[in-house]
Amino acid sequence: MPFVKLQKNKAYFKRYQVKYRRRREGKTDYYARKRLITQAKNKYNSPKYRLVVRFTNTDIICQIVYAKIQGDIVLASAYAHELPRYGVKVGLTNWAAAYATGLLVARRVLAQLGLADKYQGFPEIDGSVQEVEAIEDGPRPFKAFLDI
C-alpha cells in the first residue's frame, strides 16, 4: 500500500479556534498567569500582589501589580533610569541595578501603604534568607509574588 499524505480538509478548518493574541505573540503564559493571580475564595476580594520585573536593552522596569476583572492595576513602579537620582550613575541594566530598582519599588509601596515606619528592614545584611516577623497588634508585612 502506498503512503497517502493526510491533508487537512474543510471540516478541520471550520472547527479550528485561534489562540489568544498575547499567546500567539509569545508574551503571556496563561497557565502561569492563572496561578499567579487566582486568590483563595476565603480572602474575600483582597488583592494578590505580584512583583513584575522586565528587562529591556536600556532599562529595568519593576512594578507591583494586582489583577481585577477590568484589567491589571499597577500599585507602584520604579525604573532603572531613576537610579542616578540616588547615586548610581552607571551600569543601569545589570543585576545590581535590578536589585536596587526592586528596593526602590519596595520602599515606594511601603510608603504608599503606610508600612514604612512599622517595618524598618534588617540592619545587618549577610546574604542569608531572613523573614520579617509580623507585629502582633498591627498590620501584617507586605507580600508579593515574583512574576518573571
Topology, please?
Layout: H1 10-15, H2 21-24, H3 30-37, E1 50-55, E2 60-68, E3 71-79, H4 95-113, E4 145-147
Parallel strand pairs: 1-4
Antiparallel strand pairs: 1-2, 2-3
Report on this structure:
The chain has 148 residues and is of the alpha+beta class. The chain has a four-stranded mixed sheet. Helix content is 25%, strand content 18%. The protein is built from four helices and four strands. The N and C termini lie far apart (52 Å). The model has no long low-confidence stretch (mean pLDDT 93). 9% of the residues are buried. A hairpin with a 2-residue loop joins strand 2 and strand 3.
Summary, kept brief:
The chain is of the alpha+beta class and 148 residues long.
What labels would you give this structure?
148 residues, four-stranded mixed sheet
Q: How much strand? A: 15-25%
Order of helices and strands: HHHEEEHE
For the report, how would you describe the main beta sheet?
A: 4 strands, mixed
Major sheet: arrangement of strands: 3-2-1-4
Mean pLDDT: 93
